[in-house]
Design goal:
Length: about 90
Amino acid sequence: MAMNDKATFWFPAKRYGWGWGLPVRWQGWVVFALYAALAYAGVYYFKAQRDVSGLLVYLAILTAALIVVVVAKGERPVGWRWGKQMKSAPRD
């Protein structure tokens, strides 16, 4: 059974703008949920420690890890998109 192209990536490219949208496969949703849960847990941990700089470093590392996964498993090529490309009219 052949998999279609959409099944090979976890995060589709946005239709408008730069970057990726919400996940389209369960693996992407697991990554997204794990990121949100770890960020939420980090906020409470560092709030109890009263360590704002530690929280910022933690969130930066967590976000960098998310970006690495999205780049590796996201739709390519990524770039600025303006929606569906219009076909040009034939010239006379």
